Amino acid sequence: MRSAGPLVVALLGAAAALAWWAARALPVELADAPADRVPCVSYAPFRLPGESPFVKGFRASPARLDQDLALLAARTGCIRTYSVDQGLDEVPRLARKHGLRVLLGVWIGRDAAENEAELARALVVLRRDADVIDAVIVGNEVLLRREQPPERLRAYLDRVRAATALPVTYADVWEFWLQHPSLAEAVSFVTVHMLPYWEDEPQPVGRAVDHVLRMHARVRAAFPGKPILIGEVGWPSAGRRREGAVPSRVNQARFVREFAAAAARAGLRYNVIEAFDQPWKRRLEGTVGGHWGLDDSAGRPKFPLRGPVVEDPAWARGWAAALAGAAAFLLAGCARAPRPGGAGVWFLALAGAAAGALLARQAQIVASASRNALEWGAGAAFTGFAALATLLCAIALARAMALAPPLRPATAAEAVQWLRTDCSRRTALERWFGVARFVVLFGATLVSVLLAFDPRYRDFPLAGLAAPAVGFALLAWTAGPIPAAVEERTLAWVLAAAAPVIVWRETLANVDALAWVALTGLLAASVLVARQDEQARE
User: Fold this and answer.
1) Which of 116, 353, 440, 529 has the CB geometry, 3.0–4.6 Å to 326, for a possible disulfide?
2) How many other CB atoms are found less than 10 A from the CB of residue 150?
3) pLDDT above 90 covers what percent of the chain?
4) Which phi and psi angles does 338 have, rounded to 5°?
5) Where are the beta strands (DSSP E) in 183-337?
6) Residue 381's CB: how many other CB atoms inside 10 A?
7) How far apart are alpha carbons 363 and 385 in whole angstroms?
8) Cα Rg of the chain, angstroms
9) How crowded is residue 299: how many other Cβ atoms within 10 Å of its Cβ?
10) How far is 367 from 180, CA to CA, in rounded Å?
């Protein structure tokens, strides 16, 4: 029976989507950390909308710093800063008030004049607040960013060492320390960053702690007799998968707890990155860059260091969205003739539940990824048209189950003709169906091209594409060919061409990449296997 296939797919989709949301509500038992606090944590005050170190003239107020440090005093006994600009020169004074020790950061960049101003501010702070400062970190990943040569960086280190009795160090990823071993002569101890998620060969969370321990041993062997501080170690709670490395709240809690236990056993010194989520970092590193905090951007702890952890405390929104989706699809599908039969009604309810649950997840993704009004608008527009395309696919399939006259999307050329002349052989519903399909095709193609050529910081918007991609594939499979003109076919061929490039770049270990390629394959196939009807050829 022609209705059996779509019904089965809708049932499986709704069950899978609801099960996924339910799984996010389950408390996950993890190994406890050895203490309720971490030894030290990176701190910057740029955690609210519009705050960024790139905003000229921004200065964190002492009241704001005081508020942040009061929160952190319950989580740690030490903070690491990265600069003494934009109000951060007040951090040591306020840290003293809250019983916090400070690893004082001095930012070194490309601009010589800005570096001189930073050094002058740092020397003032060192003279005033040396009693609360444990060490001075001159430069952060300067060699990695290729902003200064090693000789010039060493000169900055020597100047600070000559001006203070405090220990002085430089911080960079472990590979660059091994490439520039002579730099160790200019530091009191080696400060090395070890972030398994960002490795050239990303490490799954289950192997991440062992990887850090191996790299620490390698650095220790390269610098015998030199103390080692792991200056940054951590795991993100949201963002794109990198091969087997998956950002999530549970994975972040697992890594921090397991590493804390391993570090306690091995006697390692370390600093966790970071105190708060910082949305501005999404400008540099995509969604994942803004989600490394132990606390979210509002200052709420994401997870405890002991006891079970829930992936998403707001999981019930997914089930509520599924219920709303089922109701919306039923109302829209039954609002006008021809009305669906019993199978069509069930299909609409199940398809609506699946689509609602998926779109709730898509809304979360847009919220976590969007940095400005443009990105919010683009994300909301794609999500809205994906919802419209899915709804119209479901109505078209429900009609096909009842052997009613078919509902087919107009081609892009027909939609343009309609906009120009206000004339069309298509109904209003079919015109909007065509517009929604074209937007979904265009959006998916744009994402695929970006993933093929510049993937490092880009997400896979699986939840937004899943429902319309499956919907169009079902429509082409069960209800006959879908009209397609040169615009749709061009986009479909680009999708097909990008797929092997994405798999090659992401490797078979990235299941999100494989899922994306599968969805775009369904979407492209729904266009490329369809025969052009007479109206499309005209």
Assistant:
1) 353
2) 16
3) 78
4) -80, 135
5) 190-193, 228-233, 269-272
6) 12
7) 13
8) 27
9) 17
10) 41
pLDDT at 42 over 90: yes
Distance CA 186, CA 170 (A): 9
What is the value of pTM for the model shown? Answer: 0.91
Strand 78-80 with 269-272, pairing: unpaired
**Measuring CA to CA, how many Å separate 26 from each of 29, 33, 40, 310?**
9, 20, 30, 6
Check whether 306 has a pLDDT greater than 50: yes
For 120, other C-beta atoms within 10 Å of its C-beta total 10
Structure tokens at 122: 């740092």
Contact (Cβ atoms closer than 8 angstroms) between residue 33 and residue 260: yes
- Burial class of residue 436 in the structure, from the number of CB atoms within 10 Å of its CB (0-12 exposed, 13-18 middle, 19+ buried): buried
Amino acid 533: pLDDT: 43
Quote the crossing angle between the two packed helices 4-23 and 342-369, to the nearest 10°.
40
Alpha-carbon span 178 to 191, nearest angstrom: 12
Calculate what percentage of the chain has a pLDDT beyond 70.
96
Instruction: Give the separation between CA 435 and CA 373, rounded to whole angstroms.
Output: 23
Percentages of the chain per state (helix, strand, coil), in multiples of 5? 60, 10, 35
- Give the pLDDT score at 532: 44
At 425, give phi and psi (nearest 5°).
-80, -10
User: What's the whole-number average pLDDT of the chain?
Assistant: 91
Q: Cβ(521)–Cβ(465) under 8 Å?
A: no
pLDDT (average), residues 393-409: 83
Which domains occur in the chain, in start order? 4-21+313-537 (no CATH), 29-290 (3.20.20.80)
pLDDT of residue 368: 86
Structure tokens belonging to residue 311: 């992936």
pLDDT of residue 80 exceeding 90: yes
Of 200, 276, 274, 206, residue with least CA distance to 234:
274
- Residue 243 sits at the vertex; the CA angle it makes with 237 and 247, to the nearest 5 degrees, is 5
* 18 pLDDT higher than 90: yes
Cβ contacts of 176 within 8 Å, gap of 6 or more: 141, 143, 144
